[in-house]
């Protein structure tokens, strides 16, 4: 099958090649209806830009770097899918790095991205990252940067995040309405932005329903192996053990599920369990796992769109802002009402 070109699209739609080219780049100069027609036709014909030819037109590398804590994480793999879908259609290569939750590796990844002369950077911070000077230096050199998911408020960049507060509030509220009163919260290191936002939503729901916030019911993890087992054992050993567990990640939810089942604790009859981020197998577990769903792919798409806008429009790009993408609660068997 012959490769489809911009000229082919222009001829079919009776448009100029320059109009088609700008529409494919998402230019603000092209009206939305024309842009829609061009993009739909290009997708139908499986048009793909030639990044090598594009890079020859200027100093742009037509490549963006994506730095994430771990590709194997379901949220990040879905976010990367969203990033690649946008970048590919706009003629950009995507170079992916993973920090494995290491600050040192994050700094090295940034340097490696620079050495490859990328046009911009998408980053979700590692769990060890508190000092963001390596990223501030890039901003001072006018490198386009967009943060997503785990972000730092110290950096004046666009940030694309899920509504972690609302998601945690909804999860906790759901447990309370199901008759639970001793709701434990298993989470990740306290200095990470998503930890703080989800903890705040959990606390707000308790307060709204007249339940006291009890620090003894909160446990912070370190991404260690099988750490959920230790957390669950510790909490169940309390004089008044929890009757529900709200976990800030599916990794912790799966660990908690396994730990509770090993102890022959019936879910949800004795204890309710709810996760955050929505594993793709959540509905296949036994019992199926209630979870707060983060729109990971949409977050990736928005982050990529904003980064490419920064790259291509420079000073004309929208100023830095925080984009909060709604999350939603998916209720399954693991949080059925206590009396059912």
Automatic annotation (TrEMBL):
UniProt keyword annotations, A-Z: DNA-binding, Transcription, Transcription regulation
All residue ranges annotated as the HTH lacI-type domain in the record: 4-58
Pfam families, per the entry: LacI (PF00356), Peripla_BP_3 (PF13377)
Matches recorded under InterPro entries: HTH_LacI, LacI/GalR-like_sensor, Lambda_DNA-bd_dom_sf, Peripla_BP_I
Annotated GO MF terms: DNA-binding transcription factor activity; transcription cis-regulatory region binding
Name used for this protein in its record: LacI family transcriptional regulator
């Amino acid at each position: 099958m012959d490769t489809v070109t911009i000229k082919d699209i222009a001829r079919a739609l009776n448009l100029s090649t320059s109009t088609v080219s700008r529409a494919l780049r998402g230019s603000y100069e092209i009206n939305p209806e024309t842009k829609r027609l061009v993009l739909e036709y290009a997708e139908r014909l499986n048009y793909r830009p030639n990044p090598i030819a594009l890079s020859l037109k200027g100093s742009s590398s037509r490549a963006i770097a994506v730095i994430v804590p771990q590709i194997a994480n379901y949220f990040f793999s879905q976010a990367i899918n969203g990033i690649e879908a946008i970048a590919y259609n706009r003629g950009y290569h995507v170079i992916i790095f993973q920090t494995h939750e290491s600050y040192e590796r994050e700094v090295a990844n940034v340097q490696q991205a620079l050495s490859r002369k990328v046009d911009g950077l998408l980053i979700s911070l590692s769990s060890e990252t508190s000092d963001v000077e390596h990223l501030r230096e890039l901003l001072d050199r006018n490198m386009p940067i967009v943060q997503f998911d785990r972000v730092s408020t110290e950096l004046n960049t666009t940030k694309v995040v899920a509504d972690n507060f609302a998601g945690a509030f909804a999860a906790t509220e759901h447990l309370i309405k199901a008759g639970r009163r001793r709701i434990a919260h298993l989470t990740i290191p306290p200095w990470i932005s998503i930890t703080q936002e989800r903890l705040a939503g959990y606390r707000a729901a308790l307060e709204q329903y007249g339940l006291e916030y009890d620090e003894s019911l909160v446990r912070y993890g370190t991404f260690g192996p099988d750490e959920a087992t230790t957390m669950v054992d510790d909490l169940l050993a309390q004089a008044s053990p929890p009757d529900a567990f709200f976990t800030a990640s599916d990794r912790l939810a799966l660990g908690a599920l396994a730990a509770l089942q090993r102890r022959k604790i019936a879910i949800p009859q004795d204890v309710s369990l709810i996760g955050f981020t929505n594993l793709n197998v959540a509905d296949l577990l036994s019992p199926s796992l209630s979870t707060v769903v983060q729109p990971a792919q949409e977050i990736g798409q928005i982050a990529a769109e904003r980064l490419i806008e920064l790259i291509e429009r420079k000073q004309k790009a929208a100023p830095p802002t925080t984009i909060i993408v709604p999350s939603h609660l998916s209720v399954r068997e693991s949080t059925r009402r206590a009396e059912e």
